[in-house]
C-alpha cells in the first residue's frame, strides 16, 4: 500500500474536461492533459484492501491494488507490466470503459471510489511515452494458422494472445479499416482513432496479418476458411439493430444510429462515406443533423453518442427519449454495492446539451407531402407493477407530436448477422447469438466464437476479456496445453 492515509488526505479528482462551447466544434478527445503527479495522488487513495473487490468487478481481473501501489511509487514500468498482464488494450478501456471496477471499489461504500480508469489510462500513456510498449519479436512459432474474423476489441485481443502463443494469425475485416466498433461506432470525441493505429503498428510488427475489405462468407468462403486454417475464431460483433416498425418508418429522415455514427467517423477519418459499418451501400446518402430537430430513440451509450454527434453537426434541438422509467439518481436498492449500480448516468454528450425524457413510447413518424419526416408522435407512459411485473400503461390525453426532421434509432442490437458466413458454417444459435461452450461452437470443434457475436451486445472490456479467454481455448485445442493467462472466476455478477 503506497500511502496508508491517502484516502483520508486526497479527494477523487479526474482530469478536467475541455469547455463545452469549445469542444462541440471539433471531434477531439474531451479530457485535458494531466500531470503524472495527479495520477500519483489518485493512486495514493487505494487502501490495498485484503479482499480487493475492484479486481473482482473487472471482467479482465485487472490486478488493481498492485498497479495503484506501483503508480504511487512512480514505478511506471512495473505498473505497466502488471496492467499489461491482464489487459491487452488499456488505452481503450482507460478511455471508454464504464469502469465496473470503480462501482465495486471498497472505498466507494462511503466515499468516492478510487479513480481506477484514469490511473489505467495514465499507466498506458506513460508506458507509450517511455517507449515501453514494444513489439515482441522473439516469438517461437508453432506452425499453426488461425483465422480471426472481425477486428473489434474481441478479435484484436484474441489475435494478440494467439500470436503471443506462437500461432500465425490472420485477422479478416469487411470494413475498410481495422477496429470494429472502436473505429466505426464509438465517436472520435470519446476515442481518437490514432489510439487504435498506434496499437495496430505494434501488432503488425509482431507478425499479425490484417486483411481489410474482406467480407468472410463472400470474398472468402466458409469452406476455404476451414480448409486454410487450423482453427477459426469468429468475432463479428452483434450487428443487427433493433428496428421500430411503426407507421412512417419508411420516411426520409428516419435512420439507424449506426448509419449516422459510422458516417461521421468516416468523415473525420477523411474516408468515403458510401458504405455503412456492415459494408452495405447506403440508400440514404449523407446524414446530417445540421439545423434539424433531432430525436434520439433509446437511452443507452449509442443514443448518447448520437446526442454528442448531433450537437457537433449544429442541430437545432436534440431530444433523447427512452421507454423505461427514469432511473434513480443514486444506486438503486436492487443493485447494492459491489454490484454494477442501476442509476441515472449523465454522459459528457448529455452535458453538451440535450432534453432527456423517460417513460415515452413512440406511436408514429409523421411526414410531409414529399415523404420527409416532420414530427414524431409520442405518448407518456405510466409504469405499473402488476403481479410483480412491470406493465406500461399509456397516460390518457398525453399523446402529442414533437417536431423532428431526423430520428435516430438507438434501441440496441438483436444479434449477429446470421445469413452468410454463420449459416454457411452451420452453427447453432442461442437467443440469436452464436452458441458456444467454452468459446467452442457446438457444431464444429475447430470453430470458436467470442465477443458480442457470442455474448450479445456488451462492452469493450467484456469483448477484450472474451477475446483473451477464447484465445486460450483455441490454444488448448491446437496444442493440448496453454501458457496464456487464464482469468480467475468472478465471485459475483457484474455488468
Ligand atoms: C455507438 C456505440 C458506442 C459504444 N460505446 C461504448 C463505450 O463507450 N464503452 C464500451 O465499453 N462499449 C461501448 N460500446 C459497445 C462496444 O463497442 C462493443 O461491445 C464491442 O465493440 C464489441 O466488440 P466485438 O469485437 O465483439 O465486436 P465489434 O466491435 O462489433 O467488431 C466486429 C467486427 O467484425 C466485422 N465483421 C463482422 N462480420 C464479418 C465478416 N463476415 N467478415 C469480416 N468481418 C466481419 C465487423 O465489420 C466489425 O468490424 C458501444 C457500442 C456502440 C454501437
Ligand atoms: S477496492 Fe478500491 S481501495 Fe480497495 S484495493 Fe481496490 S481500488 Fe484499492
TrEMBL record:
Residues 145-467 form the FAD/NAD(P)-binding domain. Pfam families: Fer4_20, Pyr_redox_2. Pathway: Amino-acid biosynthesis. It comes from the Bacteria. Keywords: Amino-acid biosynthesis, Glutamate biosynthesis, Oxidoreductase. Residues 23-130 form the Dihydroprymidine dehydrogenase domain. NCBIfam families: GOGAT_sm_gam (TIGR01317). This is Glutamate synthase subunit beta. The lineage of its organism: Bacteria, Pseudomonadati, Bacteroidota, Cytophagia, Cytophagales.
Amino acid at each position: 500500500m503506497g500511502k496508508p492515509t491517502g484516502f483520508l488526505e486526497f479527494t477523487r479528482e479526474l482530469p478536467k474536461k475541455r469547455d463545452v462551447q469549445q469542444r462541440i466544434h471539433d471531434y477531439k478527445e474531451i479530457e485535458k492533459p494531466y500531470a503524472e503527479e495527479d495520477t500519483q495522488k489518485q493512486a495514493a487513495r487505494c487502501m490495498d484492501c485484503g479482499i480487493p473487490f475492484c479486481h473482482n468487478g473487472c471482467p479482465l481481473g485487472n490486478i488493481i491494488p498492485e498497479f495503484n501501489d506501483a503508480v504511487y511509487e512512480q514505478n511506471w514500468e512495473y505498473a505497466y507490466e502488471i496492467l499489461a498482464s491482464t489487459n491487452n488494450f488499456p488505452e481503450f478501456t482507460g478511455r471508454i470503459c464504464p469502469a465496473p471496477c470503480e462501482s465495486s471499489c471498497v472505498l466507494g461504500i462511503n466515499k468516492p471510489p478510487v479513480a481506477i480508469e484514469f490511473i489505467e489510462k495514465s499507466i498506458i500513456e506513460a508506458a507509450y511515452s517511455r517507449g515501453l510498449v514494444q513489439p515482441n519479436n522473439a516469438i517461437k512459432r508453432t506452425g499453426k494458422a488461425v483465422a480471426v474474423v472481425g477486428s473489434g476489441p474481441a478479435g484484436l485481443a484474441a489475435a494478440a494472445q494467439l500470436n503471443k502463443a506462437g500461432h500465425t494469425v490472420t485477422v479478416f475485416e469487411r470494413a475498410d479499416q481495422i477496429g470494429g466498433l472502436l473505429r466505426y461506432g464509438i465517436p472520435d470525441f470519446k476515442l481518437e482513432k490514432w489510439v487504435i493505429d498506434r496499437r495496430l503498428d505494434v501488432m503488425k510488427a509482431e507478425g499479425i496479418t490484417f486483411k481489410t475489405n474482406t467480407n468472410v462468407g463472400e470474398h472468402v468462403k466458409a469452406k476455404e476458411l476451414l480448409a486454410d486454417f487450423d482453427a477459426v475464431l469468429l468475432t463479428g460483433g452483434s450487428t443487427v439493430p433493433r428496428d421500430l416498425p411503426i407507421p412512417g418508418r419508411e420516411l426520409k429522415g428516419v435512420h439507424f444510429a449506426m448509419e449516422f455514427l459510422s458516417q461521421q467517423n468516416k468523415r473525420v477519418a477523411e474516408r468515403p462515406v458510401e458504405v455503412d459499418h456492415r459494408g452495405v451501400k447506403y440508400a440514404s446518402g449523407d446524414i446530417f443533423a445540421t439545423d434539424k430537430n433531432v430525436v434520439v430513440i433509446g437511452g443507452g451509450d449509442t443514443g448518447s453518442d448520437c446526442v454528442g454527434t448531433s450537437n457537433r453537426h449544429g442541430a437545432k434541438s436534440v431530444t433523447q427519449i427512452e421507454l423505461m422509467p427514469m432511473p434513480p439518481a443514486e444506486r438503486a436498492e436492487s443493485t447494492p454495492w459491489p454490484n454494477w449500480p442501476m442509476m441515472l448516468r449523465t454522459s459528457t454528450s448529455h452535458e453538451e446539451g440535450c432534453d432527456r425524457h423517460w417513460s415515452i413510447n413512440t406511436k408514429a413518424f409523421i411526414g410531409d407531402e414529399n415523404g420527409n419526416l416532420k414530427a414524431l408522435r409520442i405518448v407518456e407512459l405510466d409504469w405499473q407493477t402488476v403481479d410483480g411485473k412491470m406493465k406500461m400503461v399509456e397516460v390518457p390525453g398525453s399523446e402529442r407530436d414533437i417536431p423532428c426532421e431526423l430520428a435516430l434509432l438507438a434501441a440496441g442490437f438483436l444479434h449477429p448477422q446470421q445469413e452468410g458466413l454463420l449459416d454457411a458454417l452451420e452453427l447453432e444459435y442461442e437467443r440469436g447469438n452464436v452458441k458456444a461452450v467454452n468459446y467452442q461452437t457446438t457444431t464444429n470443434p475447430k470453430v470458436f466464437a467470442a465477443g458480442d457475436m457470442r455474448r450479445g451486445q456488451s462492452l469493450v472490456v467484456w469483448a477484450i476479456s472474451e477475446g483473451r479467454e477464447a484465445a486460450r481455448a483455441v490454444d488448448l485445442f491446437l496444442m493440448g496445453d496453454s501458457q496464456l493467462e487464464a482469468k480467475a472466476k468472478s465471485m459475483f455478477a457484474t455488468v
